[in-house]
Amino acid sequence: MAPESQGPRIVYCRCAYAQVVPQEVKDGVLAQLAASGQPFTAVADLCEMAARRDPLLRDLAGGGPLKIAACHRRAVLWLFHSADAPLDPVQTEIVNMRRLDSTGAASRLAIREIDPSAD
Q1: 8: how many CB neighbours lie within 10 A of its CB?
Q2: Rounded to two decimals, what is the model's pTM?
Q3: Domains (ranges, CATH) in the chain?
Q4: What pLDDT is attached to residue 5?
Q5: Which of 119, 116, 113, 107 is nearest to 28 (CA)?
Q6: Where are the alpha helices (DSSP H) in 1-119?
Q7: H/E element holding 41?
Q8: Quick one: which H or E segment has residue 43?
């Protein structure tokens, strides 16, 4: 878990199975995250992890402020909830790669403050 002074933890979902996020957006966000030097956790697919009730989801949900690059906010909140790992909606920002281009999504991830209303 990252110390509070380093800002929220970042999770990047590759959306490998659902394929609802454009490939160029996923690739661009991942490249910009890697180049930024920010620590982040990359996962293959949050949907699949929720279906398996992967324990990592509970670890992520319980670890303080979090930014998740994935798809729609309501879908991500539901995925974690269905895996018995509810997210704190006040400490969680979902960066919607279905709505933003790679530059916009990477910019949101770089901001240290959480905007829980973002989608």
Answers
A1: 21
A2: 0.92
A3: 4-110 (3.40.50)
A4: 53
A5: 107
A6: 23-36, 46-52, 55-61, 73-82, 102-110
A7: strand 41-43
A8: strand 41-43
What distance in Å separates the CA atoms of residue 82 and residue 97, rounded to the nearest whole number?
Answer: 22
Average confidence score pLDDT of the chain: 93
- 3-state SS track over 49-77: HHHHCCHHHHHHHCCCCEEEEECCHHHHH
Please, which residues bridge with residue 67 across strands?
A: 10, 93
- In whole angstroms, give the CA distance from residue 48 to residue 11: 15
Residue 113 carries which side chain, given as an amino acid letter?
E
pLDDT at 29 over 60: yes
Residue 2 confidence (pLDDT): 44
What distance in Å separates the CA atoms of residue 23 and residue 66, rounded to the nearest whole number?
A: 23
Q: At what angle do helices 23-36 and 102-110 cross, to 10 degrees?
A: 40
| Alpha carbon distance 113, 119 (integer Å) | 15
